[in-house]
Amino acid sequence: MMLVATGFPLYLWRTGGLDFLNGPEPSAAPPHFLDAPGAPALADRFLADARDVHQSVACLLIDIGGLDRVRHLNGGAAMRAAQDMCLMRIKAHLRVGDAAYRIGDARFLVLVGPAARLDLEALLQLGARVQSSVEDPAALSEMTHYLTACIGMAHSRRCAADITGAGFLEAVEAALEEAALHGASAIRAWSPSLDRNVATRRMIRTSVVAALEKGQIEPWFQPQLCTSTGRVSGVEALARWVHPERGVIAPGQFLPALERAGRLSRLGEVMISRSLAALHHWDAAGLDIPSVSVNLAEADLRDPHLSERIKWDLDRHDLAPERLAIEVLETVLASSDECAVAKNVSTLASLGCRIDLDDFGTGRAPIATLRRMPIQRLKIDRSFVTGIGDDPEQRRILTAILSLADRLNLDTLAEGVETSGEHALLAQLGCDHVQGYGIAEPMSLDAFDTWLPMHDAKIADVPLLSRKA
Ligand code: C2E
Ligand code: CA
Ligand code: CA
């Protein structure tokens, strides 16, 4: 059975025993391609050899980036030539007794035979050498291509003494999965903690959509303060998965899985609806929260029914549109040539919702876009705020952003304000609003209900003038 696929499903590692190898034994005439059932059997043999001589073996799983691009630009024959070239480059760093195979369109498996001096350091050096030669520019079909190599590694000494070939390959797969999270050119070695990470990621992938439908993903609220009065001028709704066994899971961990499942728009719906319900609850409780801001993904902003849906939700909760702000990432506005996004943003603004440009400074939106779109507030990204107290250069950049906003007649909010010094300086520099851990972290609705009266009591005790300083 030939498996030619980019991914290499884990369960196939475990189906060893059907065939041994795709072709003759590797020691006789190594085939270039190893089929799925052959891999665990081969790893078993390397591990058994190592045990016989009381030495270690290792395994590298390499994911090559850029082969699709070669196929796209130069065709299938060029991609096959690139695959052969990668295998040659990998093999150039191996010794007699090691083995290297292609096991998928872009995946290569290396088994490093028993050696006395094969410690983790030596393995990392081998990984770095392999990576650097695979990433050397490649001249193919009269073009220069730049491939990347992401590498997972497993060392038998770090694994259980009786690990099987299939277990060894699962370990290296977990290491590669971890490496892939850190970029196309990352290298990671397996350690027991990686298995926990992988198990968590798998749980997230398989249960996030059901969790959203069950209402386990809810908005938490982070206050935004007006720098001149110190009062809460609004709250940002940030998604949290409150898992019944694992506790609170941050959006960075589950948003990619929701995106892959095509459910980001559903998240937007849930967040808007529950945030408006929270506003309604605060109004009924006599708490003064002027507005709630909700983050919308590009998928939401392309939805032709978005503004109708929001209007219906506002009416249902008996709230004026001014009470809702929509946070649009600068990168979305800058890169989107979709009229649908621009149309939705304009319709929502004419409805009366405020439009905040999120992560401002990171997305290179042209000034013309800032003028053309109905944006009311710039949310200055945390990277421009951190360290303003100590770094004059950082302060100069921030001042330039504030004067740009002033010229364009836009409100400003600084994100990631972590210290009272930063808060005071931002107030002095004329930034209109602040948000950050220095004021409060995002909180559940219940926690927010407790926090707000305490905050109001605190500012009532402070004379107005000193609030700005
Ligand atoms: P964001 O919209 O830029 O939200 C601000 C993030 O910074 C939040 O992380 C917040 O908890 C964190 N933060 C706030 N103050 C500070 C601070 O003083 N220091 C530091 N270091 N961090 C601070 P969180 O909640 O983990 O959200 C991360 C990102 O996930 C958000 O970045 C947003 O892009 C996205 N996100 C969150 N909720 C949603 C949602 O409902 N829908 C969509 N589409 N994206 C969401
Ligand atoms: Ca935001
Ligand atoms: Ca932000």
The counted number of beta strands is: 16
CATH superfamily of the largest domain: EAL domain
CATH fold type of the largest domain: TIM Barrel
Mean pLDDT: 89
Number of helices: 18
Structure characterization notes:
The protein is of the alpha/beta class. It folds into 2 domains: 28-195, 2-Layer Sandwich (Alpha-Beta Plaits); 203-459, EAL domain (TIM Barrel, Alpha-Beta Barrel). 46% of the residues lie in helices and 20% in strands. The chain contains 18 helices and 16 strands. It has helices spanning 10-13, 38-52, 67-74, 76-91, 120-134, 165-181, 192-213, 251-260, 264-284, 298-301, 306-316, 330-335, 339-351, 367-372, 392-407, 420-429, 445-460, 464-468; strands at residues 56-65, 99-102, 107-115, 138-140, 143-145, 148-155, 187-189, 217-226, 232-243, 247-249, 292-295, 324-329, 354-360, 377-380, 411-414, 433-434. The strands form 3 sheets. It has an 8-stranded mixed beta barrel, surrounded by 6 helices. Helix 2 (38-52) crosses helix 6. It is elongated and about 75 Å long. The protein starts with 9 loop residues before the first helix and ends with a helix. The site of one calcium ion (CA) has 4 residues, from loops.
Short account of what is shown:
By secondary structure, the protein is an alpha/beta fold.
Write out key terms for the chains shown.
469 residues; alpha/beta; Alpha-Beta Plaits; TIM Barrel; 8-stranded mixed barrel; 5-stranded mixed sheet; 16 strands; elongated; disordered N terminus; binds ligand C2E; binds calcium ion
